[in-house]
Specification:
Elements lengths: L1 H19 L5 H52 L14
Helix pairs in contact: 1-2
């Protein structure tokens, strides 16, 4: 799970974010991405503890590993790849 999230999702989401903003805003976009990444990590433990109290370990695991990521996937579906800023490679 950690290898998948750190080695694949993080780098691909970071790259997609950099391509989704204008070149002179890449630093701002990267900072915002890192901010949202670590703020979410700061609250995930608290959220999981509350979910365990409300629905038990199995329900909390189901929510945090399947249902909540659907929100992120839904957000990624709203990204229009045609509007991304792509660099042209010299021929």
């Amino acid at each position: 799970m950690g290898t998948f999230a750190s080695g694949f999702l993080f780098t691909n989401c970071s790259t997609a974010m950099q391509r989704a903003v204008r070149p002179h805003h890449v630093c701002r976009g990267a900072g915002l991405f890192i901010l949202t990444y670590y703020v979410a990590a700061a609250f995930s433990g608290l959220l999981f503890a509350r979910l365990v109290g409300a629905v038990g370990w199995g329900g909390a695991g189901l929510w945090q590993l399947t249902l909540l990521p659907v929100l992120g996937i839904t957000g990624l579906l709203l990204v229009d790849p045609a509007r991304m800023v792509l660099q042209r490679t010299p021929r």
